[in-house]
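Appendix B. Raw example, untouched.
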Amino acid sequence: MRWIDDIPVCGDPIDEQALEQIRRTRAVCDGAALMADHHKGYGVPIGGVMVSERLISPTAVGYDIACGNKAVRTDAPAEEVKARIGEIMDRIAGEIPFGIGRTSVEPIDHPLFESPLWEELEVLRLEKKGKPLRDLAREQLGTVGSGNHYVDLFEGDDEAIWIGVHFGSRGLGHTIASWFLRQAGASDAMDAQPTLLEQDSDLGEQYIRAMGLAGEYAYAGRDEVCDRVRRILGAHETDSVHNHHNFAWRETIDGRDFWVCRKGATPAYPGQRGFVGGSMGEASVILEGVDAPESRALYYSTVHGAGRVMSRSAATGRSPWGKKKREGLISREAMDEWVRGAGVELRGADVDEAPQAYKRLHEVLEHQGDTIRVLHWLRPIGVAMAGHDIVDPYKD
């Protein structure tokens, strides 16, 4: 970790565009930090943390409100799972819906749909595609999405089979984020100033309540998908680790209360566990926060993944909307060769999610210094993601 303009910054090399974004963020808040997996985002970089006593920022939470990870340790016999991994991954890919706009096969009920917020908040009374937002959210609960969102099976260094998932609040969160950004007059420019809402303003209070509901929704969705995979395995859960990494929490630091907005950053208070995924062809981790001076400087935050070294358009040669512009820098053959060499049974995915497009997770974790401790390394044996034919401009 190094200090740059009163900002603790992790990682090497530093993405200069992300650094410039976090500088602009720091200029309008009480504190900011940049994790080692950082890269440029909309307004506030991915891997960025924004801290403010009274301000909350939809830009510093992101479009995919409550995107996060869940890992479940199971009692499934590892050798049996590995022996039939092809069949298991076929079932996962066939029974769990992936991709933007996809709906679950059977809509799932949940107490969150009875929340009075659906009637109290204007954004939640919107209609999308001729349907109330609540109905669309109900249909999408338990679906995974596309881009870097996944359902994985791992063999842990504890010899257990782990389930890992990564996704957020789906269309619900994107609709909420987009509506509040419009209401606040936000710019569409990637390098726009962060949009700021006073916590006690009408718009700020509405955002905090809507964000909280999106957080419940994301937790419920990840719970549902992990339960489906566990049933496919015919196994029981023996442990779980669950966390958002695109969210704002009210936290007490040195006796003062702040909003801590994390955008692609995992909470890591001393002893707090988190699940952090690598690329599809290498290990993920269960880690925990450590009490250290650097931890306080980073507002008890750590990485949420390995971090990109290559944009999606560079990897694929396509624009975000699927139009082919040129040859991509990564071929499907090169991606498949890496994944096969890692012993991974892959379903779906596109080259923008190839291991070659990412940093190496173990190196990224080293740049977080003594702020975290790895509890378990999880080696992927099966990966399921949305296929290359899914067009989705909001993949992160």
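End of appendix B.
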